Amino acid sequence: MRIGLISDTHIPESRKELWPQAFDAFRGVDAILHGGDIHEVWLLDELAEIAPLWAARGNGEDGSGGRPVQPEHPLLQDAWALEFEGVWVGLVHDMPVPEMPPHLTVERAMERYFGRTDLDVVVYGHSHVEAVDEVGGVLCVNPGSPTYPHNLNTQLGTIGFLDIEDGRAEASIWQLTETGIEPFDWTRWRRPKR
């Protein structure tokens, strides 16, 4: 099973529509998870035409920063706990990765958002910085932003995929390019160590 991962699209502030490369990359996936800051919920309907979709409500949908509160949408809620082929995946907008104990930890965030701490994977967004980390046995995946990577000006950014096989999940990050996508070059952006 392959799940497309996307977050922080910021449509239409970043650009009028999502890059067509993102839609093309997701054709054929079994599901799509959006980690929030969609901004305009009509984008969810467009993505849902490709595959079943779930989306987390981000600060861009709740009226923060002077934006209007986005209307309710059946594919949008604060957090989801979803089971895909025996793998439990949490979807939320913000996750404390890297952790800042004792209060800002993945375990405490899972308890708060999902009411459970036994998830296998958590997909999140908010920072616009792509990341794949294992924290306390939980695979934590931030696909970055396809439109505002690293909070820079509008440009081709990143998306991700979660591949599930035999009860195991593996994540990858992909760079959008003028002609499609290519594996993300982790040497291009180095995350500072804490």
Tell me the total number of β-strands.
Answer: 12
* Largest pleated sheet: 7 strands, mixed
Mean residue pLDDT: 93
- Counting DSSP H or I runs of 4 or more residues, the number of helices is 3
Distance between the termini: 34 Å
**C-alpha-based Rg, rounded:** 15 Å
Strand order of the largest sheet: 4-3-2-1-10-11-12
Strand percent estimate: 25-35%
Low-confidence stretches: none
Taken in chain order, the helices and strands follow as EHEHEEEEHEEEEEE
Shape: globular
Percent helix: 10-25%
Secondary-structure-based class equals: mainly beta
Question: Can you walk through the features of this model?
Answer:
The protein is built from three helices and twelve strands; from the N terminus they run βαβαββββαββββββ. The protein has 194 residues and is mainly β. It has a seven-stranded mixed sheet. Strands 5-6-7-9-8 form a five-stranded mixed sheet, covered by helices on one side. A hairpin with a 2-residue loop joins strand 10 and strand 11. The protein is globular and about 40 Å long. 42% of the residues are buried. The model has no long low-confidence stretch (mean pLDDT 93).
